[in-house]
Structure prediction request, 174 residues.
Amino acid sequence: MPRKPSGRRHAAAGPGLLLAVPLLMAGLVAGCTAPAPVVSGSTPASSPTPSSTASAPPTATSSAGSPSASASASLSPGTAALKQTMESVLKTIASGTPKPAQDALRSQLVSAGVPASALEVSASKTPTGLDVDAIEAAAKLDKDCVMGEIRDGQVSVAVLPVLASGKCFVGDSR
Prediction:
């Protein structure tokens, strides 16, 4: 009497399947962990840029020597005036409130003459309702973005190029 081939297939497939499952899982785990170095590799690449731009403006704005003069000389008169306005308003706000609200920052900048249509202000609260570590404001003028930040009561201001989107911030500035 001939044997049933289905019985042998199941018996033969059992050990092969048992070996395939761990190999498949190892491949999936390896596939899941492969992007992690790319993400961590891109984080340091992007973090020196903000820290270097954040550290450069205080040197240029706090020193009365040639760095400030050379930085101001390369800016258009309108951008230089906007930068001065942004810095003045942010310092005034930060002296009274080290973590200002988004609406308060926006209204103070508009009151100081920054056009509301050119102004972007970051959120002052996280989605869970906590205060953010820093609040930023940006005003666009021609091809320049005057970027200002208040972090722990300290103000920094920098001039950066407008993004390809025509805005100063990436994403939603509400």
